[in-house]
Every structure is written in C-alpha cells, then in structure tokens.
Amino acid sequence: MGNTKKTSLSTIYGVAILVIILDQASKLAVHNFMDMGTLGEIKVLGDWFRLHYLLNPGMAFGMQFGNEYGKLILTLFRIIASGVIIYGISVLYNKGAHTGFLICGAMILGGAIGNSVDSVFYGVFIEGNAIPGSSTPWFHGQVIDMLYFPMIEGNFPTWLPFVGGDHFLFFSPVFNIADSAIFLGVLFILIFQNKFSEYDLNGDESPSFNS
C-alpha cells in the first residue's frame, strides 16, 4: 500500500460507499426473504456459518445500550462520528497520510453510516422494526444483523474456577457487514500501524534510523 498521492480522494470515499451498499443490500435482502430467529436460519457452511435474522436495538455484535434515550444518544453519536471521520479523512489525505490508513478509515466510516441508516430510517419504513415503546420511530430503528459463526460449543471443564461446567459458545454474537467493516478497519490499523507511520504528514517516507 503506497502513498495517497497515487489514489484519489473519491476512491477512498468510494470504499465507504461500497461498504454502505453491501451492508444495506444484505440487510434488506435478509428482511425481505428470511424469517426471523432460529426457524429462519440458513446454513451457509454447515453449523459453523449461518444466516440468522436478528433485530439489534443496541450497538455492534448484539450489545445493548441503555433505554430509549440510550438508543437516541447512540444514533446521534454515530452520525456525529461519521461527520468527524469524513472531515478527518479529507484533512489527512491532503496532508499525505498513508493510503492504507485512509482506506481503513473509510471502512470504519462506511460501517458507521451503514448502521446509522438502520437507526434513523428503519423504524419508519420497515414495519415492526422500531424499538417497542419508543416515542417516535425516527432515530429508534433496530439494526438488522445476520452473520452468525457458532463455531465451537461445549462446556468448560469442571475444575475451572467460576465457570467450571458452564456452557459456552464461540462465537455467539450475531453481526452484519457494517460491524465487520468497523472491526476490520480498526484491526488493520492496529496490525499495520508501523507501516502506516512510515509516511509523515507531508506525504514523504519517514527517514529510517537503520540506514
């Protein structure tokens, strides 16, 4: 992955747009062609990878976030964060930040916007999607999740403290393409942070202390 001068800013933002399109297309397909819950599951790779239609009122990977006001705060946070990332990508691009870093930022941006679309609009335009009891369907839509990887299931050894004999399932959360894009964007930044830092903010390679 090279310097951003070889990649247009529209291409960087295009990564975010691609994530949004794939995310929304998969969610609407699941909503229109699958039944919710275990009875509607579709096995993709045996028992290891399934499509499982689930409505998530909270955060990524099925995590919950407070009550009705918590959901509103979360939705507003996603929108504000998306705006900050859009601005940040533009600024860093003009300063010559590494292309790979900006692509990771675009993945995170696409994921944030993808889930924001659910939260803002799905409660209004998809029947039964709004969080039950919410004062308005706007900003209270539930995120559609469908990717499920229950790869390992069993019981902890009885000799383990606290959890001995308890049932466990890995990986139990159900998530979506937007969640995946955010997770992978952050993961790649952590993995390749040394590579990304080889370029300074003027777009030049940083000097090597080994030369």
UniProtKB/TrEMBL annotation:
Listed transmembrane segments: 12-30, 72-93, 100-125, 168-192
UniProt KW Zinc-finger keyword: no
Active site positions: D145, D179
One BP annotation, GO: proteolysis
Pathway, per record: Protein modification; lipoprotein biosynthesis (signal peptide cleavage)
Topological type in the membrane: Multi-pass membrane protein
Compartments (UniProt record): Cell membrane
Entry keywords, A to Z: Aspartyl protease, Cell membrane, Hydrolase, Lipoprotein, Membrane, Protease, Transmembrane, Transmembrane helix
InterPro entries: Peptidase_A8 (IPR001872)
Record Pfam families: Peptidase_A8 (PF01252)
Principal location class: membrane
Role this protein plays: This protein specifically catalyzes the removal of signal peptides from prolipoproteins.
One GO MF term attached to the UniProt entry: aspartic-type endopeptidase activity
The protein's Enzyme Commission number: 3.4.23.36
Taxonomy, superkingdom: Bacteria
Reaction equations catalysed: Release of signal peptides from bacterial membrane prolipoproteins. Hydrolyzes -Xaa-Yaa-Zaa-|-(S,diacylglyceryl)Cys-, in which Xaa is hydrophobic (preferably Leu), and Yaa (Ala or Ser) and Zaa (Gly or Ala) have small, neutral side chains
A GO CC annotation given for this chain: plasma membrane
Family per similarity comment: Belongs to the peptidase A8 family.
Protein name as annotated: Lipoprotein signal peptidase
EC supergroup of this enzyme: hydrolase
